[in-house]
């Protein structure tokens, strides 16, 4: 028998897990003084847990981020088009 939880409680739990994982990720590869160090087994566990959390919850990015990405992609395409030189068929060159 499966039980369901109220949506608000799940959202709160989801937010807390996100906060904890975000805090843990900020420490990956850093020692107690904030200096870089080799990635440890604990760091790898945090990374695996975070990756699983994102995958299990089908999390990719916010719509806000997607919009920004689409704008950047459009600007790149525009810049690429401006750089293009008119193509000349090779047959016309000979």
Task: Provide a quick synopsis of the model.
By secondary structure, the chain is mainly alpha-helical. It has helices at 7-26, 41-56, 63-83, 90-93. The chain has one domain.
Description:
With 94 residues, the chain is mostly helical. It has one domain. It has four helices and no strands. The protein has helices spanning 7-26, 41-56, 63-83, 90-93. The longest helix has 21 residues, at 63-83. The model has no long low-confidence stretch (mean pLDDT 80).
Descriptors:
94 residues; mainly alpha; 4 helices
Low-confidence stretches: none
Number of separate domains: 1
How confident overall, as mean pLDDT?
80
Number of strands: 0
Topology, pairings included?
Elements: H1 7-26, H2 41-56, H3 63-83, H4 90-93
């Amino acid at each position: 028998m499966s039980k369901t939880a109220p949506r608000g409680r799940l959202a709160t739990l989801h937010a807390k897990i996100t906060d904890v994982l975000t805090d843990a990720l900020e420490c990956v590869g850093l020692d107690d003084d904030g200096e870089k160090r080799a990635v440890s087994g604990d760091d790898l566990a945090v990374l695996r847990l975070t990756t699983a959390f994102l995958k299990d919850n089908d999390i990719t990015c916010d719509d806000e981020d997607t919009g920004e990405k689409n704008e950047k992609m459009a600007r790149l395409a525009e810049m690429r088009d401006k750089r293009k030189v008119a193509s000349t068929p090779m047959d016309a060159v000979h």
